């Protein structure tokens, strides 16, 4: 396909019209045509200013230049000919009312009538009425007081954003989304020093978006702008006016109808950009404003990049009249500017390199930077990253990429050495070379294909000719040198990007560390909170305990009084006895009721106590309290989880670092290999060019002898081109380690055409001293890099270990603290069962025996309340061999022994000493057989069922066949006996306490 056929039918516009100056600016020279780089139309040109619109510029005229100036070097060194979406754009001006309006306006300008003599407002209103004006939004970022502007064509929705700020990227993108805009270009009026642009990140988020900045900014972007360039969006466009002075790359962007000017930092409202850093020069700024901005119509609205006083807009006329600096003469102006004594912008040290960096299309948007986190990295992290990169990389970043190796027709005349592509011998090429292979037309030279192209036949013949020594196609030494310089540059690029990636990873590490710190703080806060609630709970519990004890005393008092009255009755006159007995009966019932209430209360209390050990459930009141505790514990667990997640992330980062290191090694190896090959080719060229009397060409190509000169070179090569690995980093260059590799840096398949390398006896490439010096120069930074990477890796490892240690210490601290709380808290100390206030009752056998109530037994009373109930006898009567069961202490009123109990919440199995006490009517359990530390109680009235577990807990129980269950009204206890006999005894013992049992 003809290259020109791919180009759009371009439209040409009046380039630049400023009241009466239009003819000076408006031109139709090819140079200016080439400068007019459009977005979608691609090209606009100047033309007859009397017509406003011209016929299309011949596409072919532009095509070559376009393609030559547009190849881009991808971060991996691949050329990406970014052919813009050169859509066919027909000149449709005049087809709509709005366009007609615009046209009339233009014609007015061209005819020397100043249509803006009327107020801008009126003009804008007219434009709005006709729907001709662009959609416009002024957005503000408060930290740096930056204005971002959004302009869009209301019909096509194509949009341009000016000076977007990183901090407000989400807001801006949201608005763009909401308005349904198709953001085509993000342009920066200059390389800002006070904030980081969001351009790079926007490109990452919006497919097809391209960055633009002045070519004098020092930053690279997809589009590098200069005077007269236009940025179209729909039927509108902005024109670039270079306005240096604040920085070299400052531009003012003027809307097509000159109704708006985006002046960046050049002209501020009643002020102007400072000139004390970033190539600032007051004289230049003065000239820029006066020549490029003050020449705009008075009504032209001035939209600056900043305002620190809340002003939003001004006009050219106003500024020309009232600007306190720019109304002065040059000398005064310079004086003012040199004495502003402003503080440097807070972020200058990071913003400048960041902006130089983030505008680059390869960074943060290319496939080298893989990290999925890029999008979500916080600003602080980016700042960190940039500060890391700043010092080391600034110089390289300032250097825009310039590789112009676009394919040229193969059969070009010999004198045309513009394309070094043809001279590369066949073999492993760096990817970018492969991407532009072949005799394709410039347009189809591989830019649209992602596949690596193979050598074409003509390439092969070219190589063959080269190898046969054809002087026609030998590359010039300077071209080779140039290519080597480019490889060095690529190396530098690679270095920068890898360092960036490392910095990214380090940044992530730092973010994780900060997160860890936050989690730790939260954990501490939670612990404090837990401590407070613990104290509160403690106080409450103490009070409750006191009340409980008082109630216990009262119940005892009631009991004593009943007993005394009971003793007195027999000594009373016969006539009163019945009455007294009745009274006594009532008092006893009251006493029983009080006792039951007390016991319930005590039960709840003890249950709550034991819940501290997380083994028991609680009553409703306790549940409320525990809920808070549970939440705290849950949060603590959450924090611990977060800590371990952070730790995993650190490990992951470490892995990524290693991978980066490996990738770097691979890339460096490939680059070194290519360089060696080039060195070799260079050497060949030298040899081909000079008459080699002592080493005839034919001989050299067929069966080359080692001539003395070569021998020297070989020796040199062995010293100078010595693999770096030999010099200290053996693993970095595995392919050059072996003596064979030393002797033959050319890969074997490069010799597969059957020809030995000219100038080598065994494939050794030759180095001139100059080349070898270049080689070592190029190699040294790589060594440093590797050492640096390794150092960082070590640091990361140390950091990781530190984090791990910290985590472990925290965990231990937590555990200890918790243990300490358990030990110190009186709440966790079980109440003494044999407390002085509540002495263990006397053996009830005697008491009950002497009681007049012991018989007749009311049928409704549970079995164990029967006065003559003998537990041991009962168990024996059931056929159990009690005497043979040594691990049980069974008396007439008590049964005690070890059982293993499953925890209520934390399902751990713990051995406890259980005591079934018919007098206290409770089954209590203690930590040990001395019965000093009560862990919990099950009151008889709570027991509902006792049954064998039937191996339900088989997977967890220490002895599933010996596991049985005690069901209370609100909980299920799993207990394990030490043997089958004791299990059966225990079950029969406990079942006596059930109401169910009392019915039989
Ligand atoms: N206080 C601000 C810095 C303000 C500042 O220096 N603004 C620049 C434009 S951004 S580089 C400027 O040119 N100002 C001119 C003026 O007269 O204010 C900060 O700390 O960031």
The gist of it:
The chain is of the alpha+beta class. It is built from 25 helices and 27 strands.
Can you tell me about this structure?
With 1000 residues, this protein is an alpha+beta fold. Among the domains are: 6-394, 4-Layer Sandwich (Metallo-beta-lactamase, Chain A), CATH 3.60.15; 830-1000, PH-domain like (Roll), CATH 2.30.29. It is built from 25 helices and 27 strands. The strands form six sheets. Strands 20, 21, 22, 23, 24, 25, 26 and 27 form an eight-stranded antiparallel β-sheet that branches. A six-stranded mixed β-sheet has the order 6-7-8-9-10-11, covered by helices on one side. Strands 12-13-14-15-18-19 form a six-stranded mixed β-sheet. A hairpin with a 4-residue loop joins β6 (135-141) and β7. α15 runs antiparallel to α17. The longest helix has 92 residues, at 477-568. The radius of gyration is 46 Å and the shape is elongated. The relative contact order is 0.06. The ligand N[C@@H](CCC(=O)N[C@@H](CSS)C(=O)NCC(=O)O)C(=O)O binds at residues 144, 193-194, 265, 271, 273-274, 306, 340, 342-343, 345-346.
